[in-house]
Amino acid sequence: MRTSVPLLRTPRLELRALSLADVPAYERHFVDYEVIRGLARGVPWPYPAGGVESFLREVLLPVQGASRWTWGLFLAAARSECIGVVDLWREGCPENRGFWLGRPFWGQGLMTEAACAVNDHAFARLAFERLVFSNARGNVRSRRVKEKTGARLLRVEPALFVDPSLTEREVWETTKAEWQVFRQSAR
Fold first, then answer.
1. DSSP secondary-structure letter at 64?
2. pTM to 2 decimal places
3. Nearest alpha carbon to residue 39 among 131, 122, 159, 124
4. Is the pLDDT confidence value at 128 over 70?
């Protein structure tokens, strides 16, 4: 069953479904080795010309709202510029959520804010009972988002990333019940 990708708002962000109109900004912020290096090896590097448009047109948009929900991140003060993405999908490999954020926006807590909004939606509206996350071991920024959103580290295991020096991933989890307790304590 297909559901819409709803508009989500946080104090500083607007999260909304991506469209082909977002390709230029997506490409500008995503096609950066420092942004891509900690992503799974399936992401090509060097990133091909036209790759963002092809990915949106052929991979993301056909399943958007069916088994995958992808939000572009837009600063509330600059709603035309996609600065990052949060991706949520039913079938984990092992993760159910992934993200990236353009380098100029690192270190401001924006991804933690976005991840909280997506977790809220996943548990309250999409009936997820648990969410699994992963990050390259050594990707401190990604790890901190998990820590700041109450996830538990389950294990470290071998994995392949765009950066061949990254050889392990950390796998994290939060359940619906844990998330509700975390959100109550954060208020």
1. B
2. 0.95
3. 159
4. yes
